[in-house]
Amino acid sequence: MNRRNFLKAVGTGALTLFLSGCGLSALADEKNKKSAAAPEKGSVSGGKNMKIVVLNSSPHSNSESTSKYLSGRFTEGAKSAGHEVFVFDAAREETHPCSGCDRCGMDGPCVWKDAIEDNLMPKMLEADLLVLVTPLYYYGMSAQLKTIVDRFYSRTERLHGKKSIIMATAYNSADWTMEALSAHYDTLVRYMEWQDVGQVWATGCGSRSLVERSAFGDMAYNIGANL
Ligand SMILES: Cc1cc2nc3c(=O)[nH]c(=O)nc-3n(C[C@H](O)[C@H](O)[C@H](O)COP(=O)(O)O)c2cc1C
């Protein structure tokens, strides 16, 4: 489906999108009232320097990606506050989906010796905070991010108790755009016994210029800087 047909399919004309302005209409919706609330400075970390893992999952380049723009702004903020940030670019690494073999017995190691097992998992296990970053793909997370999430299986319990953040970008700006992904994230947080500490639902942000003009970049920065 090309971009024009996609826009038709989601019921959002380009003019409406342009006039609504990235972030402006989105700011009005419930989801973004939640995401606008940056934590009170130091309240998440308790003043300690945290280890943070950012899970990027867009196949777009760093200079084109809308979701990586947000995670980049978040990272700037988090580093300015003294936190250590490890960024994993799922679309640029060798990864494999969980094969369901259960050889890990949900307590590792995984049979796949790839970038998830060798580089990412050790970082995630020692992290205080995981940041899930995704473009909206058919109203869910990207396959690249879902591949990582499914590989949590090999260390499910050992990944319990982390703090988490989600940042997602989408073309559509309707108020229901992020509903399914938001419900999935809430369920994941509950199952993984995580503590959600921030959400950025960047609707109406289908291109780099739109997201850069929006309020979502500052939102992401402030969440990082206030941890
Ligand atoms: C395969 C695919 C599926 C998409 N599905 C949706 C969708 O369901 N809803 C939506 O609003 N935008 C959808 N989009 C648009 C992207 O979410 C949007 O362009 C986003 O800003 C891309 O982020 P990125 O540059 O970080 O990859 C889709 C794009 C692609 C390529």
Strand-helix topology:
Blueprint: H1 3-9, H2 14-20, H3 24-27, H4 30-36, E1 51-56, H5 66-80, E2 84-89, H6 115-126, E3 129-135, H7 143-151, E4 163-169, H8 179-191, E5 195-202, H9 208-213, H10 216-226
Parallel strand pairs: 1-2, 1-3, 3-4, 4-5
The structure holds flavin mononucleotide.
Keyword list:
binds flavin mononucleotide, 227 residues, alpha/beta, globular, single chain, Rossmann fold
Write a concise synopsis of the structure shown.
The protein has ten helices and five strands. It has helices at 3-9, 14-20, 24-27, 30-36, 66-80, 115-126, 143-151, 179-191, 208-213, 216-226; strands at residues 51-56, 84-89, 129-135, 163-169, 195-202. Helix 7 (143-151) links the parallel strand 3 and strand 4.
Description of the structure:
There is one protein chain. With 227 residues, this protein is of the alpha/beta class. The chain has one domain (3-226): Rossmann fold (3-Layer(aba) Sandwich), CATH 3.40.50.360. Helices cover 40% and strands 15% of the residues. The protein has ten helices and five strands. The chain has helices at residues 3-9, 14-20, 24-27, 30-36, 66-80, 115-126, 143-151, 179-191, 208-213, 216-226, and strands at residues 51-56, 84-89, 129-135, 163-169, 195-202. A five-stranded parallel β-sheet has the order 2-1-3-4-5, sandwiched between helices. Helix 7 links the parallel strand 3 and strand 4 (163-169). Helix 5 (66-80) runs parallel beside helix 10 (216-226). The radius of gyration is 17 Å and the shape is globular. Flavin mononucleotide (FMN) binds at residues 10, 58, 60, 65-68, 135-139, 169-172, 177, 205-206.
